[in-house]
Fold this protein.
Amino acid sequence: MEKLVIQGRTRLEGEVTISGAKNAAVALIPATLLIKGVCTLENLPNISDVQIQCEILKDLGATVEWLDPNTARIDTTNITSHKAPLDKTSKFRASYYLIGALLSRCHNVEVGLPGGCNLGARPIDQHVKGFEALGATVDVATGKVVAHADELVGASIYMDTVSVGATINIMLASVFAKGTTTIDNAAKEPHIVDVANFLNSIGADIRGAGTDIIKINGVEKLKSNSTYSVVPDQIEAGTFMLAAMATQGDIVLKNCISEHLDCLTAKIIEMGGKVIESGDEIRVTCDKRPKKTNIKTAPYPGFPTDLQAQMGVVLALAEGTSVISENIWESRFQYTYELIKMGAKITSQGKTAFFEGVESLSGAPVSATDLRAGAALIVAGIAAEGTTELYNLQHIDRGYENIEEKFRKLGANIIRIRE
Ligand code: UD1
C-alpha cells in the first residue's frame, strides 16, 4: 500500500505546467476507433485512466505505441473484437465511450459496465436513449452493455439531463449515421469541443459543439491518418489555482486556457485573491486569508463539480461561513468527513454543506474518497500545520499526472511511501 506523507504548513510558490485533460483524453482514445488508420495523440496525461483505455484498445486489436510518456501512436486499422471485458471497464467511468465508438465502427458492442469514482448513482439512460434513437438495440440487463445496429440513422435527440458522457457518446455513434443527428440540451464542457474538433479534423461534420445544440451530418469515411493534441486540463488547472488560495501562495500555471476557468476566476477574485491572465498562463496570488463565498455546482459554464472538493478546502480555511450546493453528484461531500478529522468545521445535509472557516487545519491520517477529493486532501495537507498521511492513492493516480512532483516543485514537503 502507498501513502503520501505531507509536512505542512507551506505557502506554495512557483510555476507548474498543466497536463492534457483527462476527460478529453479518455474520449479521444476510443474515438480513434472510428478511423481505420493511425492517429498520433499528443499531450496525453500520463495517468492510469489513459493507460487502461489504451490497454482496452489493444485488447480490441489496435496497436498502441508510446513515442514518449505523453504521445501515443494508435493504429486501429485491424480491429478484431467488439468486446471489452468488465475487469478493465469497471476500473473507470469513461469506458462508456467504447459503446459509442464501437457502435460506429463495428455496429456491435459488448462492453462491461463502467466503474469510476463512487459519487452516488451514475445512470447511463441518456446514452442508451441516444443509441436507440439512432436505431440500435441496447441491453444493459446482464451487467454489461450489449448493443447492435443493422444501420445507424440520424435522429433528433433531446437530453433530459445535461450529460457530458451522453453528449460525447452520441457524437461518436452518429459520425457515420445516415443523415443528420441533432443533440438538443447538449453539455458544453471544453472536452466536448475538443472531441468534436478532433473528429472534424479527420473528416467528420459536427457543428455547434460548445453550445446547447449539436448537429452531426453523417459522413461515409474519415481520413486514415492524423495527429492531434489534447486540450489542457481545466480541472487540474483549477486545482492548482485553489491550492494558491488555500496556502495563501503565488502560483503561475503554464499551458492552460483561461476562458475555461472564468467561473473559478470570478470566485477567486470574490474571495480576495488576484488572477492575472496572459496568453496561456494564469497567475494566482493570495496574500491574506480568503473571504467566504457560496458555490453552486452546475454544468459548464457553471462551477464544476470536479472542483467542489478543492474549493471546499479553501472555504474550510476562509473567513466566515460559506455554503456549497452540490447539484450533480449526490455523494460528493464524503471528503468533508476527512477534512473534519483535520479540524475543519463543516456540516452537510443532503445537497448542501456549510463551511465555518477556521484559521488553520491540523495534519491527520486521511483517505482519498474519490479522485478530486484526493487532490483536495493533498492541498489541505500542504495548508495544514503538522503531518498528514494520505491513503487510497489509486483514486488520485487515475487523474493527476505526477501530482506530488508538481506540488514539490512549488515548495510542498510531500513524499510517497510504499508500506
Ligand atoms: C463527466 C466527467 C466527470 C464530471 C461529470 C460532471 C468524464 C469522463 N467524467 O462524468 O468528471 O464529474 O462529467 O461534470 O468526462 N445523468 C443521468 N443519466 C445519464 C447520464 C448522466 O441522469 O445517462 C446524470 C448524472 O447522474 C449526473 C448528471 O447527469 O447527475 C451529469 O452526469 P454526466 O455529465 O453524464 O457525467 P459523466 O459523463 O459521468
